[in-house]
Amino acid sequence: MKTTLMRMSKAALQLSLVASCLCFAASSASGATQTKPMSQDEKMAWFREAKFGLFIHWGLYAVPAGTWKDQQIAGIGEWIMNRAKIPVKEYEQLAGQFNPVKFNAEKWVQMAEDAGMKYIVITSKHHDGFAMYGSKASQYNIVDATPFKRDPLKELAAACAKHNIRFGFYYSQAQDWHEPGGAGNTWDFPPDAEKDKNGAYDQYLRNKAEPQVKELLTGYGPVCLIWFDTPRMMNKERGQRFIDIVHTLQPACLIDGRLGTEGDYRSMGDNAIPNQVVHEDWEVPATLNKTWGYKSYDNDWKTPEELTFKLVDIVSKGGNYLLNVGPTAEGLIPQPSQDNLRAVGRWLKVNGEAIYGAGSTPFGEELGAPDPTTRKDKKGNQAFNAKTDWRCTTKPGKLYIHLFKWPSGSFELPSIKGKVTKAYLLADPQKQTLGVKQNGQTWSITLPKTPSDKTDSVLVLDVTAG
Ligand code: H79
User: Fold this and answer.
1) Nearest residue to 392 via CA among 455, 459, 440, 441
2) Which atom of ligand 1 is nearest to the CA of 227?
3) Contact assessment for residue 463 and residue 400, using Cβ atoms and an 8 Å cutoff
4) Which of 61, 76, 378 to mutate to test the pocket of ligand 1 (most atoms within 8 A of CB)?
5) Would you say residue 33 has pLDDT above 70?
6) Per residue in 405-416, is it b (16+ CB within 10 Å) or e — as a string?
7) Residue with CA nearest ligand 1 atom 27
8) In angstroms, how far is the first alpha carbon of the chain from the final one?
9) Residue 6: pLDDT over 80
10) Which residue has a Cα nearest atom 14 of ligand 1?
């Protein structure tokens, strides 16, 4: 065991030198002599362009799919081990039953492409501690412990490279219910506070989590980001060890906002879309139904119209949408997930110009307003009365007005400093000019009788800087 670890860290060190040289060379303009590290703007550029990504929660929890010993277990599917307090020895047995022979990396990535998604983030290890790739640091992984024996993350990395989709990993760095030192498993092991004090947690970090993150950053080509989660007992020093690993092995790889120390962007709460514009890089992870990991009986699907609204809403507030699927234990993405995502993709095919690389709204009144009373929302924050008639995304010289409710006659644009020089519908191949009337600083755009899209008709306004 000890020698394996030592051998591995040597290999990782060698790879790290190669990787950092490559990145430095790649980031220099001339490519020849200069070795300038990437600026933060250069590092964030793809993320700011992408806007829409696919999250995949896939692991042993897809086998019980929300039911344990004939009982439906409440809550999110990937938490079944915790919610049903399944002992490690029993949960481990699921590995022997996990044989997702219908898994096809090409089909998954093709679906993401059809949906208009630009990056994929998959669970390499969730809180249950099971690695979904061939890991040398722990035998508890899909190659060594299941009849499947394949490494699906290798296959996905190759398919993503082929389709020009960026590829990243979710990695549960703190919670690991399989290990005595990992956070979270209090039914087999001592309380977390004890592990924190007696060195067991650091031992887990050093012997499993850190080596596994190194493996992910060395065996799968360029990793666009690592998505850490639930930073229990993560302090500055522990977080820094992960940052150092990422920066050494793949300096261009982004770190999400849940490591426990500062990452490259802010991660909002699960399914938590902010009410207002947030002027920093951010992303919201979100579900298509209620669960992340597959649950056979969760059919509470958001409609394509709701998903399109959320995508536009998020982009108009300056963020990215990381939208999740939970594939089955056979290796299939549930059909309603596929259908609903592809419907969003069809809208994006026509209207992608208003999403990819687009910035936030310069207005804000269209988003709604805080409730004037002391009413609280479900989370105890001041209630907010959201409006949903329209949203605005932007690019230099352009305002994209997303009309979810088609106004009769004309659209009244709130005050802007510049001038509207042309108005047309994005779905109109002829870009036929619409009538524009100025009333002081506000503008009225004459619209046809019927919307150009049943969900979101995008009105493009060419504007001069004011
Ligand atoms: O990976 C997904 C979730 O499993 C993970 N983050 C997303 C991206 C996550 N980990 N923890 N949480 C989310 C918060 C968990 C809250 C709950 Fe529960 C889990 C509510 C119900 C089950 C914890 C356990 C609180 C009650 C029981």
Assistant:
1) 459
2) 8
3) no
4) 76
5) no
6) ebeeeebebeeb
7) 83
8) 66
9) no
10) 230
Q: Among 130, 127, 128, which residue's Cα sits nearest to residue 140?
A: 130
Contact 245, 217 (CB under 8 A): yes
Specify the residue for token string 């209620």. Answer: 290
Rg (CA), the chain: 24
The pLDDT score that the predictor gives to residue 440 is: 86
Mean pLDDT of the chain: 93
Tokens of 104: 């096809």
Cβ contact 265:254 at 8 Å: yes
Q: What is the largest CA-CA distance in the chain?
A: 77
More confident residue, 228 or 373: 228
Q: How many Cβ atoms from other residues are within 10 Å of residue 389's Cβ?
A: 12
The Cα–Cα gap between 73 and 195 comes to 28
Ligand 1 within 6 A of 313 CB?
no
Which residues, in sequence order, are CB contacts of 230 under 8 Å at separation 6+?
127, 172, 174, 175, 183, 258
**Token duo for residue 25:** 């060379």
In ligand 1, which atom is closest to the CA atom of 78?
4
CA of 434 to the centre of ligand 1 (A): 49
